[in-house]
Amino acid sequence: MNFILMAAMSLVPLFLGMSCKLLFKTKLTNAMLVFMIFVSLWQLDVSVLYSVDILNKDVIFFLFKLFRIGSIMLPPAFLYVGYVILKYLSKEEAKWMNWIINKYTLFAYATWSLLIYLINWTDHGLLGLKNIEGFGSTVTVLYPVYGDLSSLFVNHIKLLIVSILLTLISSRKVTDKYVKNFLTLFSLTFLLTYMIGVLNLQAGTFIYSSQIAVMIFSIFIFFIFVHLSTKMIRETTQILKRKEKEEQVEITTSGLIHEISNPLTIMKGYSDLLSRNEQLDVQAKGMVSQIKIAGTHMNSIIKNYNQFIKSGKINPEDADVMEIIKESLVLTSIKIKEKNVFIDVNEQKSRIVKIDKDKMRQVFINLINNSIEAMDEKEQKTIKITIYASNNAMNIVFTDTGSGIPKNEWDRIFAPFHTTKEAGMGLGLSISQRILNSHGGYIEIVKSDEKGTEIKVTIPLIDYEQIMDVAR
């Protein structure tokens, strides 16, 4: 009866791991499932030692050696979770951790663990099983008799602490607070569970507690993992919606431009021929001239729309946001000096972000120029640029002391060809928004009044779309 109950409890981590896999098909879920499988095998290994009333002792000994793969593979399985965690870090943050946790060390750790498992099948690892007094005088429990190389197994199991600590250290570098909290709780709670489980290594402390601890750990981790995965899916959906919106704009606008360009070319050709016709009177020539002006204007609109479409096509690469801002300030320095504008840059530690440097520089230059123009009639002309990381995003805030943007214009200011200026096509902010949407980010007006305007640019730090990919 004890064996059946304990075996059922041992399967709890496996069922929860499979549930996570069915609910959230992510790379992290795959790592979690692998880990939970070995946790279940570890506890099944303990459970069979309580099956003396049901199974033959030789069968029990065979199953014990078979299921021992669970406890032996736990250290590399935990390290595999840490390896997947590094996908959440930028290359700069993960640089030193990649020297410790990489596919080569993971392979070497797994190979070493398999060697320990093979030794487990020899007399050097296990000699047999013996009866000991279990928890209560009525419980009959078997306990392994170790061979001369048993210290390898014991020390290998203790190496799990190293895996836990490495995973815990790497988790502290994660920017996303939800992921950081999950990994911290995951590492600390399993460390506690492991410390209770280590008591199984001594005959005098061979207890049920490890199974209860593992079950509680599994249920707890399941719920916080569901919370994490739900948040990841929500973030991914928002990013994909912004990208898909820009793709749809490109498809629709490209088709429209193509359909307009053909008749426009015909109209332009015939208007050129008519303008050279000497038989036309003055009034007719004036009409043809108006047609040519209208055609030129339409052609200008098409060129601007083409510029708008191309702004959504990006070639992302690793770049330092602070460096791009400095370059933008250099390129606008003549206008800054001419208008006597003071620039205040908050040089916090910048981050390496995967972006299109040229397109992002275009966004920053446009925002700086807009701020300068908005302060034209102000005595105090200041542009403050602040960079900070928050959760999964890099935020760049541009604050000026300009005349502000009317509240009723906030929703329309990013629309193509909408402008409050006397000159210009009104494409600057719409192109900026398109560039950011193509990066999965966004631009928004935080506040604006007669004292000035604050605009925030947000760029995702973590490529959730890549992390959420289903393993092939």
Automatic annotation (TrEMBL):
Transmembrane segments: 6-24, 31-52, 72-89, 101-119, 152-170, 182-201, 207-228
Enzyme class: transferase
Domain Histidine kinase per the UniProt entry, residue ranges: 255-463
Superkingdom of the organism of origin: Bacteria
One Pfam family matching this protein: HATPase_c
Keyword Nucleotide-binding set for record: yes
Protein keywords: ATP-binding, Kinase, Membrane, Nucleotide-binding, Phosphoprotein, Transferase, Transmembrane, Transmembrane helix, Two-component regulatory system
Catalysed conversion reaction: ATP + protein L-histidine = ADP + protein N-phospho-L-histidine
EC number(s) recorded for this UniProt protein: 2.7.13.3
CDD domains, sorted: HisKA
The keyword 4Fe-4S is annotated on this UniProt entry: no
PANTHER family, sorted: PEROXIDE STRESS-ACTIVATED HISTIDINE KINASE MAK3, SENSOR HISTIDINE KINASE
Name used for this protein in its record: histidine kinase
